[in-house]
Amino acid sequence: MRTVAIINQKGGCGKTTTSINLAACLARLGQKTLLVDMDPQGHCGTGLAVPEEQVERTIYDAMLDPADTRDGRVPKVSEVVWQIATDFDLAPSNIRLAAFEQVFAGRPGREDRLGNALASAKDQYKWCIIDCPPSVGLITFNALKACDEVIVPVETGYFSLHGLTKMMETLDMLRERTGKDIAVRVLPTLYDTRTKLAREVLSELRAKFKDHLMTSTVNFNTKLKEAASFGQPITEYDPGSKGYKDFANLARELMGGRPAEPEIAPDKMSRPQELVQRARALAQLANYQFGKNAVPTIPAAPSAGQIPAVQMPGVQTPPGQMPAVQMPAMATVAASAPAIPASAPLFGTGVQRIAAQAFASAPVSAAAAASVAPQPQQLLQPQQQQPVRTTEQKLADFYGVKQTDDGVVFSARFDQARQVLIAGDFNNWTPASTPMFRQPGAGWSMKLPLAPGRYRYRLVVDGKWQTDPHNQYVETNQFGEMNNVVEVE
Ligand SMILES: Nc1ncnc2c1ncn2[C@@H]1O[C@H](COP(=O)(O)OP(=O)(O)OP(=O)(O)O)[C@@H](O)[C@H]1O
Ligand SMILES: [Mg+2]
C-alpha cells in the first residue's frame, strides 16, 4: 500500500478536495484506494455524503488502545470504513478526533497510532490517501509517520506562497524526526489561469520549488465545488469536467505515467473526406472575396482530422481593395470542387501555396492570399507529377512557426482546447498577454512582431504548459521540460 498524506497547515487550500478526488480517480483507474480522514472537521465524509449521524466508529476508534474502549476491543480499519464506490473506501472522522492530541499526550508511541492502525489494512489496498487538518500537530505528525510521500496543495494566491516556504521548512524538520525518506511535492490548486496573480504565483512556484513541484495542476473549477456540495466525487458528479481531468492527471502522475497532454486530433482521413475538405478550403477562400452567401453549402466532414481551412486571424479583404486575381463565380468553384480527380494532389501546390503564402506574406490578407492563388481551374487539374504527400506532411506545413515580413505566425492544432496561450522570452513568460485565436476549422494562431533573434517559448493549453507539437526545434529548460525555439532572421 502506497500512502500519501495531503498536508498544508493553511486552511482552504484544497486538501480535502484533493484527497477525495485523487482517491476517487485512483479507484476509477482500478486501484483499490482507502481515503483516511484525519481532520476532526470530518469534511471527507460530508463531501462524500456519508451520513454523520450514522457514523458510529471512525479512524479515531481504530487508533485507540484497548484500555480506552468500553469492551476492551479496538476495531480494525476494515471495521470502520464506508464503501463509497468500487475500489474506494473511506475511513471517516468526526469531532471526537479533536481529543486525539490531549488523550495521547505523554503516551509512548503516540506518533505511530495511525501507522499502526493502517498496518492492518496494508494488504487490502493499493493506495491510502490521508486528508490532514489545517494545523501541524500530533495528528499531522501521525500522518507524516504513516506515509511514504506528502502532497502539499497550494492555492495559487499570494499569501499561500508566503505560507508555503514556512510549511516546507516545518515539513523538512518533521521529516528528519521521522527518520524516513519521505518525498514532499507541491501541487498547485485552485489555479485560475485568467488571473495575473495566479499565473505569477505559478511561475514563482516553478522557479522556487522546481524540484518539488508536481507536473499536474488543479485548476479552479466550479464543478469541484458543486460535486462536494452534492456529496459526490468528481468521478461521479461530472466525469466530463476539467476538474475530473485534472485529478485523473494527478492520479496518473502518481502512478508513474506522465499527465495526459491535451489531445491532438487524429489526422488520418478517408479519401472522400479529404476531397470534401479540399472543396471546403476552396469555398472558404472564395468566401473572403465574394461573401458567404455566394457559396452553396458543402456538407461538413467529420471534425476529427480536418484539414484546416485557408484562414488566418484577422484575414479580411481591406475595404475597396480588389483581389489581384479574379475568381470565377462561386457556383463554379463549389460545383467543380467535388469533381476533383481522385489522382489530384490533396493539398497540392494550389491550396498549399495559398496557405503557405498566406502565412508568408505581409500583411496577411485575403487579397494577398488571392494574389498568389492560381486560377481555380488550374487547382482542379490533375497534377500527376506531384508526389502524394501524407496528411502529416501537410499538417507540418500548415502548423508550426512561419516567419512573415511583419511578424512571426504561430499556428497550432488543438481541436479540444478551450484556450491556447503562448509564453516565451518575448513576453516575459506571461502567457495571458499572448492568447492565440481560434480559427474555425484551422486550429489556433497568433502573429507576433518579433525582432531578429533567438526566442524560446512554450504553449499553455487549457492551463497546461506544454511543448509546441508542431515545432521540432526544442531545447531542455531548467525544469527538465522542453522549450521550443524559434530563430527570427
Ligand atoms: N479546484 C477547485 N476549484 C473550485 N473550488 C475548489 C477547488 N478546490 C477546492 N475548492 C473549494 O474550496 C473550498 C476549500 O477547499 P477544501 O475544503 O478542499 O480545502 P481544505 O484545504 O481541505 O480546507 P481545510 O483546511 O478547512 O480542511 C471548498 O469549498 C472547495 O469546494
Ligand atoms: Mg479539509
Account of the 3D structure:
The protein has helices at residues 15-28, 43-47, 59-62, 77-80, 100-104, 113-119, 138-146, 158-178, 196-208, 222-229, 234-237, 242-254, 271-290, 330-336, 349-360, 366-371, 376-379, 391-398; strands at residues 2-6, 33-37, 82-85, 88-91, 127-131, 149-155, 183-189, 400-404, 407-412, 420-424, 437-439, 443-448, 453-461, 464-466, 474-476, 482-488. The chain has three domains: 2-254, 3-Layer(aba) Sandwich (Rossmann fold); 271-392, no CATH class; 399-488, Sandwich (Immunoglobulin-like). Strands 3-4-2-5-1-6-7 form a seven-stranded mixed beta sheet, with helices on both faces. Strands 10, 13, 14, 15 and 16 form a five-stranded antiparallel beta sheet that branches. Strands 8-9-12-11 form a four-stranded antiparallel beta sheet, covered by helices on one side. It starts with a strand and ends with a strand. The chain contains 18 helices and 16 strands. By secondary structure, the protein is α/β, with parallel strands linked by helices. Bound molecules: adenosine-5'-triphosphate (ATP) and magnesium ion. Residues 15-16, 39, 43, 131 line the site of magnesium ion (MG).
Provide a short characterization of the protein structure.
The chain is an alpha/beta fold and about 500 residues long. About 35% of the residues lie in helices and about 15% in strands.
